[in-house]
């Protein structure tokens, strides 16, 4: 059993969102970087749980990013995983990223590829689905439960009207969300071990971007809250009906 | 031609797809081409009605195996149809199914993709699509560089535009590729308004002190016909199911009205709801950060305020 977990570096959830250079670049000053929560809490931890059940399991982590992504990938290795691959590209075009990961996935021949459901910075939710097209593999999105039985996986996924259980023959790509695994924190032993785990740096394959960010902007701020007397809820209902026109 | 993929659940067309269709029709008008729809499976809704939302033609691949999602199968078929029809833009709803399929379709078409789009493309200088990023805390304008484009639009970001016309229905025949997954069980959530589709949402936080106190919130939601949501600590402690969790690491919503009860308004929570048209905050702490993001605020004890609000809503409804 060989698992590839896709890891992305994202700003911490409390990071101040601001832009520089004529609103063309995210302002990274003072930003704390974290492993994208969905990649860490659900995809990576589920892979680690699978390895705990079957120690013969090999877990590889892959990230697409510059040198500054290495602290994130080391942190991921401290949680678990056997080795990591950093593809040396700073592209933020989903296709380019998926294409790079697909090259690594083809070489590594994995039984299972796990991603988070989306990253919390660009929220594109593209990588798993794109990998499915690039590698011609089945893709199950928004999974919150994953069990293995030999060569077959049983996966629960969210659908528009509820939850579906699917069976799929490996290899498969799964995007993970809440419920998939219990969040954990790295322990000292893991942090020490991560220092010496192999981190392979791969040059990016040639891939041309299909999209480019031309400019960012921030939502307009609210004009100010109108306070309503807690004894006068008729007034609030009237405002929602006549002023806001939402009920 | 702009091709809009019409998603279904339980053989019913989703509102998100009608919104995608309205968006596709407006885009087609702007770039001067036809707007057509693509429906898979055996849908019960009358397909000619898709004309009301701007589809001139509806292409239907009537095969009941397509009623449930298999990304490999669906993306292959959508890409084939888009190629056969020479579609230049393929539009999806950025909902559960659209998120799963659209990126694979873009790869198969060699198309660029923008997911989470929130307004019509600017075609003055190239083709620039605006999307939400940083979980709703900002927007990015994305220039699409490919001849064929795939766009998945955020729910409740464009609205429905109605026309007075009917669509012609064209049945298409294609070989269905073998299934890549087998569905063994379906558990439906009955009787709930799906959060992402809801116009009105009532949401509770730790200020409600425990799951046993949710009755007042549910009563208000029922009086309004609203969906219910909650903050992350509430779903983390299992007071409420996790599909109700809205925020940066939960789901992001953009209803017309969001009523937050006993939620302080941490930045991660705001990220998930700040695209709501109107925000009402009920909190006993006047310093709660949520008031800064609110349109209307009530500083008071939720256990007293909420039942009063419910009564006021019911009174106003009875008066109508």
> What's the CATH H-level superfamily name of the largest domain in chain B?
HUPs
How would you describe the shape of chain B? elongated
The first-to-last residue Cα distance of chain B is 45 Å
Per the CATH scheme, the topology name of chain A is Rossmann fold
How many domains comprise the coordinates of chain A?
Answer: 1
Spell out the helices and strands of chain B N to C.
Answer: EEEHEEHEHEEEEEEEHEHEHEEH
Structural class of chain A, please? Answer: alpha/beta
Number of strands of chain B: 17
- Average of per-residue pLDDT values of chain B: 95
CATH architecture of chain A: 3-Layer(aba) Sandwich
In short:
Helices cover 29% and strands 31% of the residues of chain A. By secondary structure, chain A is α/β, with parallel strands linked by helices. In chain A, the strands form three sheets. Chain A has a nine-stranded mixed sheet with strand order 11-10-9-12-8-1-6-7-13, sandwiched between helices. A two-stranded antiparallel ribbon of chain A has the order 2-5.
Describe the structure.
- The complex is a heterodimer of chains A (247) and B (320).
- Chain A is of the alpha/beta class and 247 residues long.
- Chain A has one domain (2-218): Rossmann fold (3-Layer(aba) Sandwich), CATH 3.40.50.
- Helices cover 29% and strands 31% of the residues of chain A.
- Chain A has helices at 37-53, 70-79, 94-108, 127-135, 188-196, 233-243; strands at 2-6, 9-11, 19-20, 25-26, 33-35, 58-64, 83-87, 112-116, 139-149, 152-159, 162-169, 172-176, 199-202, 211-217, 226-227.
- In chain A, strands 11-10-9-12-8-1-6-7-13 form a 9-stranded mixed β-sheet, with helices on both faces. In chain A, strands 2-5 form a two-stranded antiparallel ribbon.
- In chain A, helix 3 crosses helix 4.
- The termini of chain A are far apart.
- Chain B has 2 domains: 2-171, HUPs (Rossmann fold); 195-319, Rossmann fold (3-Layer(aba) Sandwich).
- Chain B has a 7-stranded parallel β-sheet with strand order 7-10-6-1-4-5-11, with helices on both faces.
- The longest helix of chain B is centred in the last third of the chain and has 18 residues, at 302-319.
- The radius of gyration of chain B is 21 Å and the shape is elongated.
- The mean pLDDT of chain B is 95.
- The chains are: A alpha/beta (247), B alpha/beta (320).
């Amino acid at each position: 059993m060989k698992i590839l977990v896709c890891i992305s570096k994202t700003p911490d959830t409390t990071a101040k969102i601001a832009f520089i250079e004529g609103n063309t670049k995210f302002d990274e000053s003072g930003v704390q970087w974290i492993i994208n929560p969905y990649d860490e809490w659900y995809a990576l931890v589920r892979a680690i749980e699978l390895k705990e059940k079957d120690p013969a399991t090999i877990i590889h982590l892959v990230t697409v990013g510059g040198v500054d992504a290495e602290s994130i990938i080391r942190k991921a290795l401290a949680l678990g995983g056997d080795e990591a691959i950093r593809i040396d590209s700073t592209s933020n075009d989903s296709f380019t990223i998926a294409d790079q990961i697909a090259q690594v996935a083809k070489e590594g021949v994995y039984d299972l590829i796990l991603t988070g459901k989306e990253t919390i910075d660009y929220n594109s939710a593209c990588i798993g689905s794109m990998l499915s097209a690039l590698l011609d593999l089945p893709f199950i999105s928004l999974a919150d439960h994953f069990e293995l039985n030999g060569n077959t996986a049983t996966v629960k996924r969210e659908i528009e009207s509820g939850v579906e259980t699917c069976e799929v023959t490996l290899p498969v790509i799964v995007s993970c969300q809440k419920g998939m695994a219990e969040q954990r924190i790295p322990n000292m032993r893991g942090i020490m071990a991560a220092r010496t785990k192999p981190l392979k740096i791969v040059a990016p394959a040639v891939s041309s971007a299909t999209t480019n960010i031309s400019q960012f902007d921030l939502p307009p701020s609210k004009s100010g809250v109108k306070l309503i007397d807690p004894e006068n809820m008729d007034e609030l209902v009237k405002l929602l009906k006549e002023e806001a026109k939402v009920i | 031609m702009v091709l809009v993929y019409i998603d279904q659940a339980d053989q019913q067309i989703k509102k998100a797809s009608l919104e995608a269709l309205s968006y596709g029709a407006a885009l087609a008008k702007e770039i001067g081409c036809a707007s057509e729809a693509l429906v898979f499976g055996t849908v019960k809704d009358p397909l000619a009605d898709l004309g009301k939302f701007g589809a001139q033609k509806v292409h239907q691949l009537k095969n009941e195996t397509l009623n449930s999602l298999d990304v490999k199968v669906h993306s292959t078929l959508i890409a084939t149809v888009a190629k056969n029809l020479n579609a230049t833009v393929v539009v999806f709803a950025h909902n559960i199914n659209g998120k799963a399929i659209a990126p694979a379709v873009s790869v198969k078409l060699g198309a660029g993709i923008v997911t989470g789009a929130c307004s019509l493309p600017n075609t003055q200088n190239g083709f620039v699509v605006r999307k939400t990023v940083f979980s709703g805390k900002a927007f990015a304008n994305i220039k699409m560089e490919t001849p064929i484009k795939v766009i998945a639009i955020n729910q409740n970001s464009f609205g429905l535009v109605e026309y007075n016309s009917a669509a012609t229905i064209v049945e298409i025949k294609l070989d269905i590729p073998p299934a890549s997954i087998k569905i063994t069980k379906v558990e439906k959530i009955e009787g709930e308004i799906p959060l992402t589709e809801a116009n009105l949402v009532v949401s509770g936080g730790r200020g409600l002190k425990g799951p046993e106190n949710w009755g007042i919130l549910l009563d208000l939601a029922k009086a309004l016909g609203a969906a219910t949501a909650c903050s992350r600590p509430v779903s983390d402690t299992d007071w409420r199911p996790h599909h109700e969790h809205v925020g940066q690491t939960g789901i992001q919503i953009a209803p017309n009205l969001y009523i937050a009860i006993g939620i302080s308004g941490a930045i991660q929570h705001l990220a998930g709801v700040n695209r709501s048209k109107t925000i009402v905050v009920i909190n006993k702490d006047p310093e709660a950060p949520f008031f800064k993001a609110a349109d209307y605020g009530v500083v008071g004890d939720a256990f007293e305020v909420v039942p009063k609000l419910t009564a006021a809503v019911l009174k106003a409804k009875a008066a109508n």
